[in-house]
Amino acid sequence: MASKKRVIELINESIYLYTISKSFENSVSEWCNDLSLIKEAIEIGKKQYLIYNGDEVTDESSNEYLNKLGGIIHNLSKDPIEQKINHILNTLPYVFNDYNKYKTKETLIKFVNELHDIYNLEDEKIISILNDEQNRLYDCQNWNEWLEHFEPTVSNSSTSIKTFTDLRNYLVCNGIDTIFGKITNIQKQVGQGGNSMVCFGKLNNEDVAVKVLINYNEDKKNRFYLEYYNIIKFVKNYEGIVQQYFLGIMRVENYEFPYIVMKKYQSQLVFDDKISQKQLFKYINQLIVPLKYIHKIGIIHRDLKPQNILIDENGNVNISDFGIAYYDPDNFALTGHTVKHDRLANYDFSAPEQRNSKYIPNATTDIYAFGQIIQWLVFGETHKGTNRQKLTKKFNNKKVKELDKIVEKCLSNNPKDRYQNFEEIEKFLNEI
């Protein structure tokens, strides 16, 4: 139990040279519980609300900080998942003009319950998924588009399969008939996006993954086919690229669901707070190999992020999901490039210029995402704005100090200031 005096001291220290008023001190009595929680709330409030003029806090930001502090403490005292849901709800007004807070909360609670009850996920994993959903806010045109992601329609026909739940249940009960045999033992889906879902199953007693296209138009179907065709033809079995086996079509009533059968991988790339320096450099060097190759043959991935990096049975990384990749028309007869309103990358990992519909894809787009992935591997979060958290905060040595220089250059806002190809990065790494 923290004393009222100690809490007041901590708050006053955070807004020095200012001090809180006597009337404000009265409300502090309600906060005097867990001192570590109060310290955490103060740090969150300082980071989010305090603005400095030189060394001094501005009056306006100090007042906003004090007004928000009680709410932050109250939120931190809740269950971590409930905290995350509240954080998303509080983010909505900054992203969308038209939204329904109560419907969003209801949808998120239903989503969390399904992750608990159907997928048996631990709280830590659910919070990570909710973080991804919060980041997805910035990728959507409006609130309805984001909300529909949680239970989108999977077909635009009169088929009885309308939602992910319908399709998931159908696959679990019926499997998928292919020209090479029937895919059985289909598990609950392991991933979903606005245009596809991924599930695991067995084909001729071998483990496979199946990516199913849903709710598509002709352009999206063509890109799905194109992803398979270009990767299977030009990149098949290349080190560090996900292995695809074959393309098929599942017919349900009067609707077709195209699918790609591929190798089943152990997991996605996940954040490990205890990652070693050796493991960090292993991932970095392994990512460079396939990225250098696809750029050489004229492919820009454009959607590099941890969810699209899969770990195989040997602990090696493999790049997946070329769904919005750019194919250089000088090298590829079929390009199927995205058009206006198509899905364009993840907000946290995408380069600033990707939010401009007129930008021309080039290698520096993926190089920016590569830098963000390194930052994320070390700290579990990407970098935005200024004053990047240095990698040496975790690994304080000369080698990582040089790696910090690489990340800094990768994350330059101006594409011309970044490395222009992965060969440059590889050379710098070799010198390290």
Q: Could you outline the blueprint of secondary structure elements for this entry?
A:
Blueprint: H1 4-14, H2 22-28, H3 35-49, E1 52-53, E2 56-57, H4 59-76, H5 80-95, H6 101-117, H7 123-136, H8 143-148, H9 164-174, E3 176-178, E4 181-184, E5 191-192, E6 196-203, E7 206-213, H10 218-234, E8 244-252, E9 255-263, E10 267-268, H11 277-296, E11 299-300, E12 309-311, E13 317-319, E14 326-327, H12 363-379, H13 398-410, H14 422-431
Antiparallel strand pairs: 1-2, 3-4, 4-6, 5-6, 6-7, 7-9, 8-9, 10-12, 11-14, 12-13
Helix pairs in contact: 1-3, 3-4, 5-6, 5-7, 11-12, 11-14, 12-13
Verbal overview:
The chain is α+β, with helices and mostly antiparallel strands. It has four domains: 4-76; 80-148; 164-263, Phosphorylase Kinase, domain 1 (2-Layer Sandwich), CATH 3.30.200; 267-431, Transferase(Phosphotransferase) domain 1 (Transferase(Phosphotransferase), domain 1, Orthogonal Bundle). Helices cover 44% and strands 14% of the residues. It contains 14 helices and 14 strands. It has helices spanning 4-14, 22-28, 35-49, 59-76, 80-95, 101-117, 123-136, 143-148, 164-174, 218-234, 277-296, 363-379, 398-410, 422-431; strands at residues 52-53, 56-57, 176-178, 181-184, 191-192, 196-203, 206-213, 244-252, 255-263, 267-268, 299-300, 309-311, 317-319, 326-327. The strands form four sheets. Strands 3, 4, 5, 6, 7, 8 and 9 form a seven-stranded antiparallel sheet that branches. A three-stranded antiparallel sheet has the order 10-12-13. A two-stranded antiparallel ribbon has the order 1-2. Strand 12 and strand 13 (317-319) form a beta hairpin. The longest helix has 20 residues, at 277-296. It is globular. It starts with a helix and ends with a helix. Residues 339-343 have low confidence and may be disordered.
